[in-house]
Each structure stands twice: as C-alpha cells, then as structure tokens.
Write a sequence for this structure.
C-alpha cells in the first residue's frame, strides 16, 4: 500500500533552540524528514525558532516559519496554512509537547489537522509513567518478560515522603514527568536530598508529578531503536549498550553499538519486549527508543522508558548503522510500509530488515563543566553533556580511542606518560574511590587506577562497568606497556597498537618522540589505515553509499574518482562556543561546491549533525578531526583522484587550528591561508594590521606574569578584560575591576604560559557592541550583515541578543563599519568569510577582534538577509569572485547586508542559556549572570517588521512569552538605576504592578513611579510573615524579573533571585538594555495581533524591495 | 565474574593462514585448536548467537567467517548449544574476547574450541574476506597453523583437493544414530515424527512447548519407522549438504498419505524436490539473523514481513508468480526473501503440508516466525477434527 492520498500538506514542528538534551540531532532528523516529504510531493510547512538549522533553510520546506514553538504561534501558523496533517515526532520533546497542547486545546480538531507519526494515545502511553507501567505489565502478561522498577507516583511532598517507605527505603530515584532529557531527576540517598530533588521535580513537571523508583544503580543499561509500520511490521534498527552502568543518563554515558555483552537469548528477550512494547503503546507509523536495565547477576530485565518519537539515540543509531530512522519514519507517517521503502545504502534491498554491523561504534559525551565552575560535575540521571563525538572502528578499543580523541579536549585521550603519582602509596585506592562516582572523564580515572595497579575485579567493584569492557581497558594498557618497553617500534607492534586505536600522538608520548617522527616511521613501515564502508549489512550486499571509517585492516574500499575533490573539515562535537552554527556552514559549503561541479568530501565526528548524514556530501569520512586522521584522509583521497584542497574556515576553531600544520604537511588549504589566520589571531600581527589601516583597538597588552599584567592594567586603567589567548567562546574571559582580582585570576588560570600569554584589554564600559559578517574575495567586500547587540559590550557576543539590521546605527556608522571591515579583510588576507566585533564607545569605533572564518552568526545573518553567505564563502575559497557570484545569482545583483531597504524585516537573535541544568553540590542552582565567557548552548530568532515584535518573538522562542501584565520585580545595580526609570514607567503604563527592593524603590518613587517594597532574601521573612522576593517568585507571584548584577556587594541576593527565576521559569532580565527591549516587546504584544510570516514571504518582500 | 588469565597484550598464539581455493589468502593467528582444517568458506552476519551457530549441524563441513568483529564476549554456557558438539569445520574471527563476561558463562570460547579440536584463525580482515566471498561465491578453504603451515602453493593444492559442497550427502553424518523422544511440556496433545537431517535442539523444544511429543528419528529412518510412531504430523528438519543427493522416498510416502507435514530448511528443499521442483546452490547463501521474509496472504497478495534466521546455501527453484501443479495437488511459494526474492517457503493448497527455508525455531535469531509451529499444530488439529 503506497502513500496516503488524503494528505497534501503537512506541518512539521522542529525542536527549537539547542539546549542540553535536545540538540542538533533534531535538525538532522527534521531535515531528512522535510526532504522526504517534499520529495513525496507534499507541501511541507515547518516551524522552528532556531535559525542555525539546515531544516530552516528556505529550500528544505515550502513554507518555513522561524517563529516561537508555542501553542499560540503554532496555532497562528495552522490557521494561516491549514495543513492536512501535523508530524510531531521529529522535533523532540518540544514538538511532542506542543502537539499535545494543540490537541488538548482542541486546535487540531478545529482546523481538521490530523496528527500523524504517533497519535495522542500512543504519546501519552509512552510518556506518562503510570500508563507506561501498565504497558509494561500488559507486555509481561503476554510474553512473560519485562517488568517495571517498583515505583510510586507522587503529586506532593507528603506523597513523596510516604512513598519511600513503600519502596523499602533509600536510595530512590526521582523522575519528574514530562520533562526533557531527564531534567530534574536524580538519586536521593536521604530525606534531605529527597526533599530537594523531589521539590524541584514537582516544580519542573508540567503536571506536578514525580515518580519515585527502586534503585537499579549499577545494572547494565541497554537501548533498542525500533520502527513499526501500519501493517505491524517491526524492525529493531540498532542495539546500544551503555559502558557506564545504570545511574548515568544515557546522553551522558559512553555508549557502544551494537550491544557487546549479551548472548542471543538475552538479546532476543529485549527484542521481544521491545516489539511488544511498541505494539502495546501503539506507535504504528514511526520509530521509538526503549531503554532497559539488565541485572548483571541474573539477567532480570526492567523496562525503563520509551520515547515514542525520533530521539538523540535514534540519530546516533542512524549514524551507527546507516539506517536513516527519521527519513524512514517520515515515509511511514505518510502511509508507506517498511518493505516498500528501499535501503538507501544497498539500493537493492528493502528497509524492512535489521542492520547488522561488522564494526563497533562508540559515542562519548562532551561536557562543559569548565564553564560552570560552581556546578556539581557528577553524572546523574539528569543529562549535563552539551555534545558528543562518535567513532567507528573494527573493534571496541579502536573505536573507543578514536572517540576519545574526537572529543578534542585536553586530557580526553588516555595518557601513558610516566607519572610518579601513580606509584605513590594509596594512589590506586584513591583513584578507585574517585572512580566510584561517575564524572566527566571517569574512564581516564579508571585507566589511571589500572596503571596504578588496580585489578579487573577492583575496577568492576568500584564502577560496575561490565568486566568485558574493563578487560578492554586492560588490553589498551597492556599495549601501552609494550610500546613503552619495546626496544624499537617494530612494524608488527606498531600495526597492532594502531589496530587498538593508539594515535601517533599517544605513541609519541609513550616513546618520548615527536608525533611527526612517529608518523614518519609509521609511513616508512607502510602502516597506514584503510577505509571501510558503513553498509547496514556487514558486506552481505554491495554498498552504493561512500560512508567511510578508518581502520588498521587489510583492504580499503575507497573507489577512484575523476572529479576534483574538496575536503571540508567539520567542527567536531558540539560544545558551548562551537555548535550547530558551524555545521550549518559546512553543509552549505558542501551543497554549493557540489553544485559547482566538485566532489565533496566531509570529515566530521559529530553524530548529531546534518554534515554527518551520508546524503549531504559525495563522500563522508566519520573520523576524528586531528591532524593525524585528517592527513590520512587527504592521503587516501589523493590516491583516489585529484584533490582541489581542504576547507578549514567553516568548521569553527577546530579545523582552523589544523590549518598551519596541514599546510606544513603539504596539504592545499583553499580560501583564507594559514598565514592570514595567524595575522588575525596573533595579537601582535593583528595590531600591525590595525595600525596600518589606522583603526583603533582598546588599549591592551599581553602578560605572562602578574607583575606584567598589573603594569598593563595600571597603565590602561580598570576595569580590564582579561583572557587567555587562542580560545573560543570567551573561555576563561573575565572583566576584572581591581588589582586583587587580577592577582587571583592570574594565579588561578591554568592556561597561561610563556607561549600562551594572558591578554589584558581595556574594558569599554557602556559601549555598543557590533558584530559584522562579511565576504572578501581579495578585491571586493560583501557586507553580509551588521548586528547590533542589545546587551552592552563585555557580555560575550554568543550570549547577547542582537538585532539585524542594527536598530540604532545610522548610515554613517554603517559606512565606517564597511570601511573598517574592508581594511581588515584586506590587511589580514581573507578569502571567504570574516567576522569582526566592534565596540562603539562615545564616537569611537574600536575593533575588538577579527575571526577569519565563518562565525556563529552566519546562519542568522543568512536567514535575516536571505543570502547564503556560507555557500558564497565556499565558492570564493575555490576562486570565484563576488562579482561572479552576483552574476550567478548566489549573491544579490547589487547592494549587500549593509544596504538593506528600510522596510526590511528586523531579526532578533536571542541566546538560550542552560542554567536550569546545573546545580552545585548542595543542589542549588548556578548563577545566571551573563559575562564575557560564553555559556549559551543555542539561539533563537524572532523576525518581524518592527523591533519590538521581533524581540518579543525571540523571547517567546527562547524562554517563553513575555508577560503582558502582572507583577514585575525590579532590582538593579546603582549604575543602572538611571537607565531603568523610563522602561519602568512604561511597564506601569502597561498595567504592571512594580515590586522593588528598598534602594530601587526609592529611586523609582523619587521619579514618581510607585513600587511596592519587598523584602530582600537576606532580610528573611518579615515579622508578620511578609514574604521575601525569593519566596514570592517561588510562589508564582512574580511575572517578570529585572535583576542586574551588582559589582561585588549584594551579589548573593541577586543570585537567589535569579536562580529562583530559573527554577520557576519566570522571565529574568539581567541587563537594563534587555529591559528596554522587553518593554518594546510588551508594547508590541499589547498593541494588536502579532502575526506570523514565512521566511519565503519575507525573502520575496526583501527581494522585491532590493529590486526597487 | 570470571577471573581472567592474561599474558601480554599481544597474544603469542602461533601464526595461521587461511587459503581460499581461488588462491587468495589471509594471515592471522591461531584461534582455538592449532592444526589444519578444510571446508566450504561461508560468512554469517549475526551479531549474537555464536554458540548456537557453532553447534548448528547445518554448518557441518563449513568454515564459518563471523562478520561481527567481537566473538566470545559472553563465553560459553551449558544452555545455548543447539547440539552436543561444535559442527563447524573451522572458525574465522577478527577479535575474539580475552575474557568472557556473562552470568551464565561457564568457560571461554577459545577453551571450548580447543577442547573440541576446532581449528580457527583470528585477526584476519573478515570484512575483506566476506566481500571476496560475496563477489566470488562460497568456495573451499583451508586454515593452517602451527606445524600445518607450509608453502602457500602447497596449501592451495590441498585446499583444491577437498570435495565441493555440491553433491555432498551429509545428513547421515550429523543425524542421531538412534531415535529418541522429546516429551511434551505439559499435557501431550500430538505425536510428531521428526526426521533428523541435522536437527537443532531448539526445534523439538518449540514443538514440545506446544504439547507435542517429538520422536526424533535418524536420517535413514524408513517410512515404516516413521509411521511406527503413530504420528499426527511429520517434521523434516534442517541439515547440511546438497538436497539433490537426498533420498525422497519417505517424504513422498508422507505426502501420499496426506499426513500433516512441516519442513524447515533442508526439509523445505526436500519437500520442494518431492513436489518436482529443482534446487540450486546460491552464490554465497543466506546466513544471518536479520533476513526479511514476506508471506503470501490467503488472497495471493504479500503480507507481513518477518525478520528471520537463515542458514542455507541451497534454495528451491519454484515459480513465484503462480500456483504450480504437482503430483500432490496445487503448490505455491508461500514466503520469499525480500533481499533477493529467493523462495523461502512452500505450501500445498490441497494437503496439510508446508515448509520454510529459514529457521522459525530461531536460536540464534528473532522469534518472529514462531507462529509457524502454531500453524503446524492447527494442521494437526484440523486433521484430527
């Protein structure tokens, strides 16, 4: 039975901004789905507030709404577009929850929209803990396997406390219902912990519901990915085994595919349960993910949960097997059956089969605890990782070591350098003790314990990591010992070490050699990797899709080719500061260069992304982005045919950092050359570029000691901005107000050395920060876009909101920006994209920094101006000129992002922060103040004809709608008091009741604005039970919070206010500029209907205006 | 947890070489027993179930290449074998486990291979070998290690002396010599005479679970011996070898009498031949537990897809698109493999007779096709009614 004919148009809901637990994997899934649906001839309507996605590219859907994913806005889109169906299973929990809200509100019925992919009953059965327990019980009754952990559902703290008794005491697991990525869940070992975790959980759950559960800590953890069609055909796409046993969220675990330590009997039991569960839940046209715990003592199986939708794990499973779950889910949703869908990779066999692997896949999470020093870094059932790397090898050790080096983080690889500390008495026991608590990098602690003499049994006892995995770690360690002890690197030993994943750098460390020397020896001995294909079928059928991974084996499968290849280096695992935006640019480059006649070769190791979809480029190498791995790929591709060069400027700092070394090894870098990269990144060299162009930069200096830093600071005056050199995302950056802090900063910083000095800049108070994205071809500049930050300079550009076109800059300013940008692009020697940050202080335009690469804002700029900047950059890299691209139509025939028509829409980008994810070790939230170090995980875009509406949309997309009435609490630092008055007055005019702390209230009253004084948190409850502001927030009596951080004093009070706001989900503005913008937004919301408009419509208007 | 015995990382097993009859060779190290072995090289794509595979009598005289790189992770237990011994002639793996980990494990796989004298090789590029077999077809192979190592030309000559699988009559070599009875679990409802052509242990168990008392008879059992058990149904098992060599007297006799008949794998091929269809050798066979098979509906359309366990090098040559007339009435192809349209099942429309080419008993493999045993039961019920 082919496709349904009663559906002509379908609305797809994306997952919105990247947050922890919901990341780029939904762009990958959603993009696949939209393409498939479009190819089926359906009209695809998409809503997603995240501009940094491929799915929101105007070509992917017929109507693309970059609008907030709230029931209100989605209803507006439904009313306008009148889709026949809504597909909610590809946009994570966000899409599912929105769809359920629309269903519950009767909106879907009202407009006759059919939910496809999963119906409401199935979603509820899968998501509601109680209903799911019934599902598991029904399954057990039918097939005799599978049970739920013993548990109780609680809706209040009293029920929670009583519940512990019925479970037989502590520890217990707390899981709030309907939260994403396990938000708010955790283990409670005593009543104190229980009150805290369950209290939080009750608050986080939209249904005020938590589940208390018996502890199955230390059990083996597995996942199955299943798909089912309307004819009840079911396949298991992939099995995944967690290296870290139960207790760590699967998103934070090292995971392995396929399952490694199950016999067929045990595996088939999981499979039978999985199939019975998907049937019982009633997912009848799509996929689901089911998690299991298996008791290592006796095999008792507990079904933990199921997600009746595409998930992070399904994206991983798709990349791990070559079976594109989202793509097939979309086809099933419109009526196809599995046997009617061909397997892309073999082309000859159908999708109704179960992939079999002849390799091992390992995924490792990447964390960002360094960004949140106060946060508790232990791993629990709440997901905390911000990204992941995947690696494929022909065995576990190879895949694991490749995955660890893919993390591209100091210390992520096993180190076997001599270490006296390991021989110290008690070292082993201390390491084993540390290893008991799962943390980021626990596997390295385990390896150190092994090196310190721990036995396999001791490691198992401490960690409950399956003995088979433990033995594999011993295997790696034994090879390290052999490498260390061997008289020379024999071909045999070298080949075997490489087979177990040792990098040249690791071997160099062990042998006391330089990495390039090891490489030379290895090449001289002929020890080089081969490339195998991911083919879904373990070579049973010929693969048509060149999806490669390296291995030290005999036979390579890279086929010769004739067209010149361009190798595009991706950006590796997502991390704060380097996320999906860079993948976006890489994917665009691939599309553009393919259109221009090149064979595109993508290299990346991030399983979440569109770039690692085997459909994106002509060839995909799923490989770590290290010099060694990239050089081997370049070698393999050079053997296969002509290579035009390697693109390094689109994947962020990761490939940029490889540029010089690749060039030194004879690799052609296309686009901006490594020397130009150096000219922009090196302080001295960049200073000369600016001096030559006559452009001012804030006064600055570089220091390697406190004395030097002090001398510089004394000269240029406090506050100063200090940071280590060569970092991305403002890592370690801080505004320092006095000498004491400067001294402690230098003392604390571990990243400062004579070769890596600390940079000390004058901090420009009250400056307007401006971001510019531009293209330069050596002769002509194309100003892609000018973004005016809403927050003042000093807040990392990635964390601040910005508007495009700039809302307060005039033609003269733009002209200055253009001239300066061109001078810098020319001086540095850019061929392609450049991003420059300026600060306008008084009347002076300072240059803060220049990045000779695609920036984080490229997707935003591209969408806001309807011009594909990354595509153009890729073409320029390979020699096209801006004039040619204008003639071709890739760039507008005339004008650029600096000359947008006056009635061009205003786009506002807002950053999304992960505050609610992190707690300190006492369970308190982490502070939410913005600063020079970037901490946002994602972004949204609001687009409309006026700034206020666009800003309101950006807030709605990021944090939930701005309130249009109610109570606003205001407490600002002294320096902000003056600028607060007008917006505060506006709030009152809109009918807000103002609450303020005494100091702020005083200022307001003097200015004729009435504000109710509320008690500070530090003052405690009043004699007559007057609540403090924090209590008021917790009780839901505050609708808007304005709290700007004080310099030093009073900081703690603000901390409690801000963390309460996060916990309660109340909009919290931490800069006075944001308040001013919010007031404009509230004004817009209160004046008339806010409409929705697709990017295609915006573009049409913009193009028409440009023609005028 | 099992305690491991570890030496250095680079296990000091003797060198080994695998030589294919077309001259390609792969070097590795000895795994299991040291020595030499010969057989037909085939690859199996299952990621679980090595114990079941090793002990499946259908693999008699075959050297099995495991495409899954890690083998032996769960060790060897006493419950999962499908027969009393390992049948594979040789074993080719990439990365065998150094230590097993599973609560049911009793010993390691290499101990077991050694104890049973199975010569294996590890550390070879099993994917390259599999691709080679896929492109060139299953072929004869030898594995040599220790003192058996010699000049490759000499080894190749010896590989080429091995008899080919086509024309091999092997059932009697693997089947039980004496008949035995597997009692029904719970109350007995039916008696089935099962012809052991290389039967797997799970098959009588699946029948016993359904109230069937299974009389397992030697491959050489006569029609009289079959009916001496007073069977409600007759079962033809899986087994190794070329179906063209088999004696069809018993099958034809059962068809004559119209007794409910169910065949699996080799049994399917025997039924096919008895009905007058031909059988042929597949280029490289189906061996794995992920094969999609679709059943023909009652109305002649194609129905549900089941994921099934396969282990067959031969197949029945019967028309897919029409009903065939046979000496025993009308017959049709009931199941096909979606990967390559190979005949995966036959049924008679006028007699209670059906068979499948794959393994509904699974072990190893998915349980999707277990309903076929229920179908056998209903045929016997109908017959009785």
């Amino acid at each position: 039975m082919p496709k349904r004919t009663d559906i002509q148009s379908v609305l797809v809901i994306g997952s919105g901004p990247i947050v922890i637990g919901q990341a780029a994997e939904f762009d990958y899934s959603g993009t696949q789905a939209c393409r498939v649906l479009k190819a089926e001839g359906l009209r695809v309507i998409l809503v997603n507030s995240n501009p940094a996605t491929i799915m929101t590219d105007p070509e992917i859907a017929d109507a693309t709404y970059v609008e907030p994913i709230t029931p209100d806005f989605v209803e507006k889109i439904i009313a306008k577009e009148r889709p026949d169906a809504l597909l909610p299973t590809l946009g994570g929990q966000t899409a599912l929850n929105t769809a359920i809200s629309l269903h519950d509100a009767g909106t879907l019925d009202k407009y006759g929209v059919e939910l496809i992919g999963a119906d409401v009953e199935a979603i509820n059965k899968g998501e509601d803990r109680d209903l799911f327990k019934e599902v598991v019980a029904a399954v057990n009754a039918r097939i005799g396997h599978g049970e739920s952990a013993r548990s109780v559902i609680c809706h209040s703290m009293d029920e929670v406390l009583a519940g512990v008794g019925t479970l037989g005491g502590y520890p217990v697991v707390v899981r709030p219902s309907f939260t994403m990525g396990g938000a708010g869940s955790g283990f409670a070992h005593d009543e104190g912990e229980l009150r805290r975790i369950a209290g939080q959980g009750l608050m986080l759950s939209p249904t005020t519901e938590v589940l208390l559960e018996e502890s199955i800590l230390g059990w083996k953890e597995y996942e199955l990915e299943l798909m089912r069609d309307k004819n009840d055909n079911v396949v298991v796409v992939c099995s995944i085994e967690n290296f870290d046993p139960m207790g760590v969220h699967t998103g934070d675990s090292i995971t392995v595919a396929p399952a490694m330590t199950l016999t067929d009997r045990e595996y088939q039991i999981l499979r039978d349960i999985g199939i019975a569960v998907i049937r019982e839940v009633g997912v009848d046209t799509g996929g689901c993910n089911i998690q299991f715990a298996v008791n290592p003592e006796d095999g008792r199986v507990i079904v933990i949960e199921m997600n009746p939708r595409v998930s992070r794990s399904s994206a991983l499973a798709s990349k791990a097997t070559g079976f594109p779950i989202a793509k097939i889910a979309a086809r099933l949703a419109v009526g196809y059956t599995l046997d009617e869908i061909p397997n892309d990779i073999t082309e000859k066999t159908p999708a109704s089969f179960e992939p079999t692997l002849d390799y091992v896949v390992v995924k490792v999470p990447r964390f960002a605890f360094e960004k949140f020093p106060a946060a508790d870094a232990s791993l629990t059932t709440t997901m905390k990782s911000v990204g992941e790397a995947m690696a494929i090898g022909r065995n576990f050790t190879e895949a694991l070591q490749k995955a660890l080096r893919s993390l591209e983080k100091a210390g992520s690889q096993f180190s076997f350098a001599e270490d006296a500390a390991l021989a110290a008495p008690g070292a082993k026991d201390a390491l084993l003790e540390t290893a008991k608590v799962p943390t980021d990098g626990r596997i390295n602690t385990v390896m150190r314990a092994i090196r310190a003499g721990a036995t396999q049994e001791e490691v198992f006892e401490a960690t409950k990591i399956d003995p088979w995995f433990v033995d594999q770690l011993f295997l790696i360690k034994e090879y390290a010992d052999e490498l260390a002890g061997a008289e020379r690197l024999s071909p045999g030993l070298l080949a075997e070490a490489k087979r177990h994943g040792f990098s040249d750098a690791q071997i160099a460390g062990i042998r006391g050699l330089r990495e390039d020397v090891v490489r030379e020896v290895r090449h001289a001995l002929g020890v080089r990797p081969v490339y195998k294909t991911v083919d879904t079928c373990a070579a049973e059928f010929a693969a048509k899709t060149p999806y490669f991974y390296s291995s030290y084996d005999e036979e390579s499968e890279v086929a010769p080719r004739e067209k010149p290849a361009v190798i595009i280096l991706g950006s590796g695992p997502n991390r704060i500061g380097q996320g999906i935006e860079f993948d976006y640019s890489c994917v665009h480059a691939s599309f553009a260069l393919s259109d221009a006649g090149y064979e595109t070769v993508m290299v990346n190791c991030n399983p979440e992304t569109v770039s690692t979809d085997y459909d994106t480029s002509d060839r995909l190498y799923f490989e770590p982005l290290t010099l060694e791995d990239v050089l081997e790929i370049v070698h393999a591709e050079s053997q296969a045919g002509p290579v035009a060069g390697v693109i390094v400027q689109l994947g962020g700092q990761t490939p940029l950092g490889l540029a010089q070394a690749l060039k030194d090894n004879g690799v052609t870098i296309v686009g901006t050359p490594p020397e130009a990269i150096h000219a922009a990144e090196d302080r001295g060299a960049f200073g000369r570029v600016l001096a030559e162009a006559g452009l001012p930069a804030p006064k600055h200096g570089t220091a390697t000691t406190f004395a030097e830093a002090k001398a510089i600071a004394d000269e240029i005056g406090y506050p100063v901005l200090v940071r280590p050199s060569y970092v991305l995302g403002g890592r370690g950056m801080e505004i320092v107000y006095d000498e004491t802090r400067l001294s402690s900063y230098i003392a604390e910083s571990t990243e400062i050395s004579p070769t890596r000095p600390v940079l000390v800049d004058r901090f420009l108070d009250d400056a307007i920060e401006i971001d510019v994205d531009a293209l330069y071809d050596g002769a002509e500049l194309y100003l892609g876009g000018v973004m005016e930050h809403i927050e003042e300079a000093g807040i990392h550009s990635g964390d601040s909101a910005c508007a495009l076109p700039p809302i307060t800059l005039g033609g003269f300013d733009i002209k200055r920006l253009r001239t300066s940008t061109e001078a810098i692009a020319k001086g540095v020697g850019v061929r392609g994209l450049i991003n420059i940050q300026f600060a306008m202080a008084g009347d002076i335009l300072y240059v803060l920094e220049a990045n000779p690469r695609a920036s984080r804002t490229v997707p935003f700029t591209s969408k806001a101006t309807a011009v594909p900047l990354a595509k153009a950059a890729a073409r320029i890299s390979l020699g096209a000129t801006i004039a040619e691209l204008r003639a071709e139509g890739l760039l507008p025939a005339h004008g650029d992002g600096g000359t947008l028509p006056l009635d061009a829409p205003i786009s506002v980008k807002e950053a999304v922060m992960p505050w609610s994810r992190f707690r300190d070790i006492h369970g308190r939230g982490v502070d939410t103040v913005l600063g020079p170090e970037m901490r946002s995980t994602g972004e949204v875009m609001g687009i409309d004809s006026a700034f206020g509406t666009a800003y309101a949309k950006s807030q709605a997309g990021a944090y939930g709608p701005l309130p249009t009435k109610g109570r606003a609490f205001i407490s600002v630092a002294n320096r902000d008091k003056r600028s607060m008055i007008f917006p505060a007055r506006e709030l009152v005019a809109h009918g807000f009741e103002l609450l303020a702390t005494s100091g702020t209230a005083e200022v307001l009253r003097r200015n004729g604005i009435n504000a109710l004084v509320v008690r500070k948190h530090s003052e405690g409850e009043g004699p007559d039970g007057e609540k403090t502001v924090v209590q008021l927030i917790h009780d839901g009596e505050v609708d808007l919070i304005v709290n700007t951080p004080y310099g030093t004093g009073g900081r703690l009070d603000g901390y409690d206010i801000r963390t309460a706001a996060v916990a309660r989900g109340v909009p919290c503005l931490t800069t006075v500029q944001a308040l001013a913008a919010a007031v404009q937004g509230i004004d817009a919301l209160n004046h008339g209907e806010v409409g929705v408009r697709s990017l295609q419509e915006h573009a049409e208007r913009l193009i028409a205006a440009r023609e005028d | 947890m099992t305690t491991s015995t570890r030496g250095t990382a680079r296990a000091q097993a003797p060198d080994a070489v695998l030589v294919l009859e077309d001259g390609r060779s792969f070097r590795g190290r000895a795994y299991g027993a040291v020595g030499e072995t010969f057989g037909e090289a085939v690859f199996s794509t299952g990621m679980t179930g090595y114990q079941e595979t090793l002990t499946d009598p259908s693999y008699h005289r075959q050297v099995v290449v495991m495409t899954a790189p890690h083998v032996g992770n769960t060790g060897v237990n006493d419950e999962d074998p499908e027969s009393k011994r390992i049948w594979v002639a040789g074993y080719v793996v990439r990365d065998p486990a150094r230590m097993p980990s599973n609560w049911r494990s009793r010993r390691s796989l290499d101990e077991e291979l050694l104890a049973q004298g199975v010569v294996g090789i590890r550390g070879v590029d099993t994917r390259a070998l599999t691709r080679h077999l896929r492109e060139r077809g299953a072929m004869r192979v030898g594995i040599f290690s220790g003192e058996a190592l010699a000049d490759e030309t000499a080894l190749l000559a010896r590989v080429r002396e091995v008899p080919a699988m086509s024309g091999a009559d092997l059932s009697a070599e693997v089947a039980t010599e004496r008949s035995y009875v597997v009692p029904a679990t719970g109350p007995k409802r039916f008696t089935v005479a099962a012809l052991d052509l290389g039967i797997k242990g799970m098959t009588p168990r699946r029948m016993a679970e359904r109230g069937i008392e299974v009389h397992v008879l030697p491959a050489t059992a006569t029609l009289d011996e079959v009916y001496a058990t007073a069977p409600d149904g007759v079962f033809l098992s899986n087994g190794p070898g070329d179906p063209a060599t088999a004696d069809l007297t018993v099958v034809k006799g059962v068809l004559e009498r119209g007794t409910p008949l169910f065949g699996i794998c080799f049994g399917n091929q025997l039924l096919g031949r008895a009905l007058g269809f031909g059988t042929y050798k597949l280029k490289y066979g189906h061996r794995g537990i992920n094969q999609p098979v679709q059943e023909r509906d009652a109305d002649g359309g194609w129905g549900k897809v089941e994921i099934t366990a396969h282990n067959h090098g031969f197949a029945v040559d019967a028309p897919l698109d029409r009903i065939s007339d046979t000496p025993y009435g009308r017959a049709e192809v009931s199941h096909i493999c979606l990967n390559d349209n190979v005949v995966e099942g036959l049924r008679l429309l006028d007699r209670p007779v059906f068979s499948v080419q794959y393994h509904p008993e699974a072990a190893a493999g998915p349980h999707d096709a277990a309903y076929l045993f229920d179908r056998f039961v209903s045929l016997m019920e109908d017959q009785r009614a």
Q: What stands out?
A: Chain A touches chain B through 65 residues (CB under 8 Å). Chain A has 38 helices and 39 strands.
